[in-house]
Amino acid sequence: MEASAQQEEKPVAVEGGLRTGMINATEMQRLIDVLRKEGYQVLGPLLRDGAIVYDEVEAAGDLPAGWMDEQEGGVYHLKRRDDDALFGFAVGPHSWKRYLFPPMRRLWQAERKGKGKFRVIPEEETPQRRAFLGVRACELAAIAIQDRIFMQGPYVDPVYAARRQNTVIVAVNCGHAAATCFCASMDTGPQVRQGFDLALTEIVDAERHVFLVETGTETGAALLAKLEARPATNDDLAEARRIVERTAESMQRSLDTTDVHDLLLGNLDHPRWDEVADRCLACTNCTMVCPTCFCSTVEDLTDLSGKTAERVQLWDSCFSMQYSYIHGGSVRMSGMARYRQWLTHKLASWIDQFGTSGCVGCGRCITWCPVGIDLTEEVRAIRATAPPAPALEDESEY
Amino acid sequence: MFMTNGQVAARPMTPVVGRIRRRRRETQDTFTLEIELEKKRRFSFAPGQFNMLYVFGVGEVPISISGDPAESDVVRHTTREVGVVTGAMRGLKEGDYLGIRGPFGSAWPVEEAEGRDVVVIAGGIGLAPLRPVLYHLMDHRERYNRVTILYGARTPEDILYKQELGRWSARLDVEVFATVDRATRTWHGNVGVITTLIPRAPFDPKNALAMVCGPEIMMHFCVRELHRRGVTSDRIFVSMERNMQCAIGLCGHCQYGPHFVCKDGPVFRFDQIEEFFSVREF
Q: Which residues does A360 contact at the CB level (< 8 Å), separation at least 6?
């Protein structure tokens, strides 16, 4: 009940009600403070183990000021920027999925009561209010896709739904594209368009370090009202849009989505599947870093006395042999079948199931693949060598 | 057809508890459990649907419901021991408890079949998910034209529901044909694969509706024979099996092209899956 009321309070419509303001970079601390004071745990980017990951941010100083990432197939490293941009990188190995659809969670417990008997104890979760700080356009698209999966089918995942409804989103437009980014061709970015409470565009040059703040919801507008902001001018807006346009133009990769559904499902016997399977290690990295991959498995555990049991849910991957196991063996024994499963689901069957591609063009699967397999390259190869579609009518035959 | 109940809708991943009222050995590796739900909960399902059964501390498996859809005080499951969970389930005694979630999935088209010749084709344990259909057909026999049951088992000892098959085959308005892969000395029936029964089964292909359940390879060849006799793919229904863990289309394991077998299946009209059915490892 409470959850649905909250949802109504948070319209996604932006038109008309959109408000803007300009804040200095130093206001980031106030934004974090305001959110924390309102009971939100603020999650944002920070440096850890040589990567930019998402975790709790208590102060603006936790943000990776002056750092950027360099990415390529199988390559990720950080380097210093020549400015102090707070969001001057692309995306790292984490995605926000870990906070809405956690990598591991308990589903329920059971307790033995006498011989042969037991009772099931449902898991009660009171979701923590959370603010996601620094959500990219591709990640907003990924969240929207997982919303469809977990909240808009015949069955709803109650935990996901509760977490989602208690989340405030502060998005960031990208001022830098990694070499692995291809959101522009997937039509998901780099400009954030919807699904945010606040959207920031970072403007950093010799004279100034400021953010354009745009509101997407009433919640966002209330947050902006608590910041020290000056009105945004047309020049500010134009400058912000230029930054994002430049990011789009700098994007080096692209995926041609024209008829990709029929292209892949019509070429299930294409030799390229074998070729890519020779390189694929079936390590599952691509599915773990993917912000839309939603597969999970369950494990049943007991304590040593056998008195209590519990079921936990864990992220799973279609690259494992166990994934398709039914008595007698796995359906997809070969690496070929497993890679084909992943790519045809992501780019084709996903459209049948959820009305959208499962790929948002974030490039994580390329970067974090230990052997640098690049799905844009795989699709291109299949497209280049796919046998032409059979002609519908060939009257010369008659 | 999509059915659910209140418990499933509110907590789709949490089982309720049921008590084994009766346990019956069917064949050397199959057994039937009669389960009553705690607090005398009623249970209704459509033929073809399945439940997730949980053995305390061991695990959970999808098992088709094999009871009579007309009874709601008991849930019946016939299971073959194939792994750790079904092995543990086999060890349960009368009075022991199980976790149950369900019913899940799509149903056999018993209404669409009305007025038609109905051909029920089962291989091995594949008869279990079809038994609710057979109960329904017998209860409403007047609604259907000819009813034919084709059943194949490995050996005569592996024939499931022998008494019921015998009873149905004694009826004048039902034809039962059984075959075994390997005969024993006392077996006087057909020997050979089940597909050999299809060419001579008494049904009118133009008016027939077929429901097929068994190993995928068996269904593959049965569909081929049905096609040969002129039954079109939109009149053939099959029940698919894939790894299933959540049973509500969220865990991904049973994805099959545009479908999730747990939610959009397990029963499919064949033309819904025909495109992929013969693709290896799909």
A: A138, A139, A141, A142, A145, A183, A186, A188, A189, A291, A292
User: At which of A250, A276, A302 does a domain end?
Assistant: A250
> Does A31 fall in a domain?
yes
Q: How many CB atoms lie within 10 A of CB A55?
A: 13
What are residue A113's phi and psi, to 5 degrees?
-135, 90
- Same-domain status, A14 and A153: yes
Are A116 and B97 a contacting pair at CB < 8 A?
yes
Say which residue the tokens 């149950």 belong to: B100
**A19 membership: H or E segment, kind and range:** none
Whether the ω angle into residue A154 lies within 30 degrees of 0, i.e. cis, is no
Q: Which of B57, B250, B260 is nearest residue A306 as measured by Cβ atoms?
A: B57
Pairwise CA distance, residues B86 & B55, whole Å:
9
- Beta-sheet strands, E only, within chain B: 16-27, 30-37, 50-55, 59-64, 75-80, 97-104, 117-123, 147-153, 174-180, 190-191, 208-213, 236-239, 255-256, 259-260, 267-269
Architecture of domain B117-239: 3-Layer(aba) Sandwich (3.40)
CATH 2.40.30.10 describes domain B6-104 = yes
Tell me the chain B residues in contact with residue A155 when contact means C-beta distances shorter than 8 Å. Answer: 9, 12, 248-250, 263
Model confidence pLDDT, tens digit, residues A348-366:
999 999 999 999 999 999 9
Q: Is B243–A323 a contact, with Cβ atoms under 8 angstroms apart?
A: yes
Residue ranges of chain A whose pLDDT lies below 50: 1-16, 391, 393-398
Contact between A112 and B56 using a beta-carbon 8 Å cutoff: yes
For A146-184, b where at least 16 C-beta lie within 10 A, e where not — what string? bbebbeebebbbbbbbbbbbbbbbbbbbbbbbbbbbbbb
**Location of structure tokens 């920070």:** A46
The 10s digit of each residue's pLDDT in A38-48 is 999 999 999 99
* Residue A309 and residue A325 in contact, taking contact as beta carbons nearer than 8 Å: no
Whether B11 sits inside 8 A of A316 (CB atoms) is no
Residue A99 structural domain:
2-250
If asked whether residues A97 and A62 sit together in one domain, one would say: yes
Burial of A238 (0-12, 13-18, 19+ CB in 10 A): exposed
**Among the partner residues B59, B93, B260, nearest to A300 by beta-carbon distance:** B59
Global pTM reads 0.92
Neighboring chain A residues of B82 at a CB cutoff of 8 Å:
327-328
Distances from the Cα of B155 to the Cα of A30, B131, B209, angstroms: 77, 20, 28
pLDDT score of B2 = 36
Q: Is A67 helix (H, G, I), strand (E, B) or coil?
A: strand
B212 to chain A, minimum CA–CA distance in Å? 19
Instruction: Give the closest of B82, B92, B245 to A327, CB-based.
Output: B82
Note the pLDDT of residue A389: 59
- Residues pairing with A308 in the sheet: A111
Q: Which residues pair with A112 in a beta bridge?
A: A118
Question: Which tokens sit at B93?
Answer: 């005694």
Query: Looking at the partner chain, which of A156, A300, A324 has a beta carbon nearest the beta carbon of B57?
Result: A300
With contacts defined as CB-CB under 8 Å, which chain B residues touch A325? Answer: 243
DSSP 8-state symbol, A243: H
